[in-house]
Amino acid sequence: MKKLIKEYREEINNLLIPHMQKQLGFERPPTIVFAEDQDNAKDMFGKTAYYNPSNKEITVFITNRHPKDIMRSVAHEVIHHAQNCRGEFENSFNLGEEGYAQNNSHLRSMEEEAYLSGNMLFRDWEDNLKKQRNTNNMVNENALRAKIRKMIAEEMANHTENKPSKEHDSS
After folding, report:
1. Whole-number Cα distances in Å, 10 to 1, 16, 97, 162, 169
2. In the structure, what pLDDT confidence band is assigned to residue 133 with cuts at 50, 70 and 90?
3. Of 94, 78, 97, which Cα lies nearest the Cα of 86?
4. For residue 117, which of 80, 90, 85 has the smallest C-alpha distance?
5. In 10 A of CB 107, how many CB atoms?
6. What is the pTM (predicted TM-score) of this model?
7. By the 8 A CB rule, do 123 and 9 touch?
8. Are 121 and 19 in contact (CB under 8 A)?
9. Which H/E stretch holds residue 116?
10. Would you say 72 and 124 are in contact if contact means Cβ atoms under 8 Å apart?
């Protein structure tokens, strides 16, 4: 699991975050903490991630979660980071309290943006990455086919050159 977390962390920090930063226009990316918590993982309504606007830090819970779900949570929280960079968290005192998005229209609209924009930016990034990988695979496949054709042609040419000629016996 530790090895996978390292790979996902690199993918998130080196690919997903720069994509979102470019799309959203914030200057500095958030700090991301990958938290393992067995008790939280067992709780059906446990936390998946949260953003702390005071230290610009995202904590994402990773225990027993699919990597794509982890990345989707990060994308959601990155929207909150962008909102914080735009000053939208000022005077928001009841963050994280139960029902905060139901009881405060400003926080509700921030959550709506995080759900919609976070998921859509993640989806766009994922689709683009898949397209790039497919293109790379096609290029690799075409290059491999060309090499195989060349090897076959060379082998056929060598076989023809080395083939003993039939001499006619005139007895």
Report:
1. 14, 9, 32, 54, 74
2. confident
3. 78
4. 80
5. 19
6. 0.74
7. no
8. yes
9. helix 105-162
10. no
Question: Does the structure show a pLDDT above 70 at 68?
Answer: yes
C-alpha separations of 59 from 49, 89, 156 in Å: 5, 17, 61
Instruction: List pLDDT tens digits, range 86-104.
Output: 999 887 666 666 777 777 8
Length of the chain (residues):
171
pLDDT of residue 108 exceeding 70, the answer is yes
- Contacts of residues 16-22 at CB distance under 8 Å and 24 or more positions apart, as own/partner, are 16/71, 16/74, 16/75, 16/122, 16/125, 17/74, 17/78, 19/121, 19/125, 20/75, 20/78, 20/82, 20/121, 20/125
Distance in angstroms (rounded) separating the CA atoms of residues 132 and 87: 35
CA quadruple 65, 84, 93, 106: dihedral, nearest 10: -90
Higher pLDDT, 150 or 66: 66
- Mean residue pLDDT of the chain comes to 85
Measured from the Cβ of residue 165, the count of other Cβ atoms closer than 10 Å reads: 4
Residue 162's pLDDT band, with cuts at 50, 70 and 90, is low
**Tokens describing residue 157:** 């040419």
The DSSP-derived string for 140-165 is HHHHHHHHHHHHHHHHHHHHHHHSPP
